[in-house]
Design brief:
By secondary structure, the protein is mostly helical. The protein is built from 1 helix and no strands.
């Protein structure tokens, strides 16, 4: 497990060099709270940042499932 902030790609650069799989579980799911900017920043921008970094570092195929 690696710790980082999905909103800031510099916090997880270099994590994916020697790994085979990534399970992305970082999100905010408490939709009943009024924090729409946090949801967007983490769930959308954070996922985008993670996928870009994976694309940059990993040489293997990438599978992603959204729900």
């Amino acid at each position: 497990m690696f710790l980082g902030d999905l909103r800031f790609p510099d916090t997880f650069k270099g994590y994916f060099n020697d790994i085979d799989y990534v399970f992305h579980l970082g999100n905010i799911a408490s939709w009943w709270l009024n924090r729409s900017q946090d949801y967007y920043d983490i769930n959308v921008t954070g996922t985008y940042n993670l996928l870009n970094e994976l694309k940059r570092q990993m040489k293997k195929k990438l599978f992603n499932e959204f729900s």
